[in-house]
Structure formats: structure tokens, C-alpha cells
Write a structure and sequence with these properties.
By secondary structure, this protein is of the alpha+beta class. The protein is built from seven helices and 16 strands.
């Protein structure tokens, strides 16, 4: 190849064919032959025109990866959420201004949990001594059929009514006992007052009385031949107040110191409420003859037995 057909790169001084436009070694733009651009020819000794150098390597555009786009999207989301919260939160506060949410206050009458029956709602015992139910003379086994003029169908309805009844309101309570409908007035109390009464009872300095029977062995039963229920006693503990007084296994307790006894829970509660070393009168129905005899109607005799209680 002749020198006339070669050209020297003014950047790296490499020689190469004159018909190239860029240096194949460094990428620098070469002085083109005059013939190629219609300007004339030049020799290697001719002065080369001044040209602006190009970068050694052409720059490539960087493309954002998928993870980069995800990061940008999350950033935009959190910034937008923060801006939305900053705008909406003050609006919510301003829209709720002056609105006071009152806590739900429920009235109580001082009994244990309610249960459904065919006629209304029953409870097993009066819990708080000195509470509304206790003052009104209600006892476990009473079936509430109307409360504050509203007929009662189930425990959920009664609980709703108790929630809607203002604390301290005097209401009429209609109930069934031994097949008879009766009505009493009572004044409801708050949950705090109900708890206070129970705390005072649990911590009373006199302590609790002892009767002398296996309370888990007692059972609520219907008294044969009568339209009442009572509590049939199971095991009587030896040399305890009940045994000493003459109470026997199988006796059905219907009264405790003048209070009707219709459930085993009420009987147990009345024993706990009694003061130690006091004497209480029990009314019991005692079966006559052999209770295991078949084909014979069982007969009962009514007994009044005083029992001097002990102390636990």
C-alpha cells in the first residue's frame, strides 16, 4: 500500500487507509481525503486542519433495571400516602369536633348469669347481699317474664334492656315462682356498685358459715306431689352442723331461714351468707318408708329442723 493511500491519526499517530473516516485504533476522527469530500487532495506533509477530539470511547446510555423501577414506585407510593394522611387527618378531626363517644353503661340487679326457659329468663341465685334483687325478695329459680314493662323472651333481649336502662332507675319486674306470677319493684345499680357489694361480702370479718354437706352432691328437684322445687341433699358429713341437727341424706330443702329454696346454687349462697354460729331453721321434705321400694307412691313428711351453723 502506498503512502498516498494512507493517513496518520493526529491523536494516536497510527497509520491507516486514507479512506477511513475514524481511527480504528482510538476512534478519533481522521482528516478526510480531499477527494472524498470534493475539496482536492493533500499530502501527508500538508498541514492538517484542527478538529475537535472525540472521547476515546463513545458513551452508552444507561438503562434503569427492574428493581430500580420498583424502588421508585414504592418511594412514590409512600410519599403520596404521607401526603394524603397529612391532608385527611386534620379533616377527620375537624369533622368529629364536638362529638363525644359515651361509654356503654349497663344496669345490674345483683344476680348470677341468666338462662333461657320456655316462659322467660331464669337465674340460679342472688349474688350480691344488699343488692336490688336481694332487697326485692327475688331468689334463684325465679323466672323473669317482664322487665320495666317489656315482655322478656330470652337472655340476649334482657341483657340489651339492662344496657338501655339508666343506672338508678326503679323498674317493675314481673316473675314466675311455683307457677304463680308476681311483681316487685327494684332500683338498678352500676357495675362498680355491684362489685363493691361482692367485695364487702367476700371480705366480711365474720367469715363464712359451715353447714356440713357435699355441695356438689346436692341437686335441684321437683318435690313430688307439690308444684314447687327444692334441693335434694346427697352426702351429709359426719359430726358437722347438719349431721348433728338431724339432717339426713335424701332430705329435700325447701326453705332456709324463711327464704324459699328452689335451686342448689341459691341454697349454697344462703349458707355462705349466713353468719357463723347462728341458728337457722330449715324446712325439709323427708321421704317416708323405703325410697327404693317399687310400685309404691312415695310419701313425704314436712319437717322444720333448726341447725346451728359452724364456721369454715
Amino acid at each position: 500500500m502506498s503512502q498516498a493511500s494512507e493517513i496518520t491519526c493526529s491523536n494516536c499517530h497510527s497509520r491507516m487507509p486514507a479512506d477511513l473516516r475514524f481511527c480504528r485504533n482510538c476512534g478519533f476522527r481522521l482528516p478526510q481525503s480531499m477527494a472524498g469530500y470534493g475539496v482536492g487532495q493533500y499530502s501527508p506533509s500538508d498541514e492538517l486542519p484542527t478538529v475537535t477530539a472525540l472521547p476515546a470511547q463513545s458513551k452508552k446510555k444507561r438503562r434503569m433495571s427492574g428493581m430500580s423501577w420498583i424502588f421508585v414506585g414504592l418511594l412514590v407510593f409512600f410519599v403520596g400516602a404521607a401526603a394524603f394522611t397529612a391532608i385527611v387527618a386534620p379533616l377527620r378531626k375537624s369533622s368529629n369536633f364536638g362529638v363525644i363517644q359515651m361509654p356503654v353503661v349497663k344496669s345490674y340487679i345483683g344476680v348470677d348469669a341468666f338462662n333461657n326457659t320456655d316462659d322467660g329468663v331464669i337465674f340460679e341465685s342472688v349474688k350480691a347481699p344488699g343488692g336490688p334483687a336481694d332487697k326485692a325478695g327475688l331468689v334463684g329459680g325465679d323466672v323473669i317474664v317482664s322487665f320495666d314493662g317489656q315482655p322478656i323472651h330470652d337472655e340476649d333481649q334482657l341483657n340489651d334492656i339492662m344496657t338501655q336502662t339508666p343506672v338508678g332507675k326503679t323498674v317493675d319486674v314481673e316473675y314466675m315462682r311455683d307457677g304463680q306470677k308476681k311483681t316487685v319493684k327494684l332500683t338498678t345499680i352500676s357495675e362498680d356498685e355491684n362489685r363493691r357489694l361482692m367485695r364487702e361480702f367476700d371480705k366480711r370479718p365474720e367469715g363464712r358459715a359451715q353447714f356440713g354437706y357435699e355441695d356438689g352432691d346436692a341437686k335441684t328437684v321437683k318435690v313430688p306431689g307439690l308444684n314447687i322445687h327444692g334441693v335434694r341433699l346427697g352426702q351429709i358429713l359426719r359430726n358437722r352442723p347438719a349431721d348433728i341437727a338431724g339432717i339426713k341424706e335424701g332430705d329435700i330443702v325447701t326453705e332456709f331461714d324463711g327464704i324459699p329454696i328452689r335451686t342448689d346454687a341459691e341454697f349454697l349462697m344462703r349458707i355462705r351468707r349466713a353468719l357463723p354460729y347462728t341458728t337457722v331453721k330449715l324446712v325439709v321434705m323427708r321421704p317416708k318408708g323405703d325410697p327404693e321400694a317399687e310400685n309404691q307412691p312415695q310419701e313425704f313428711e314436712k319437717l322444720e329442723i333448726p341447725v346451728r351453723l359452724g364456721k369454715q
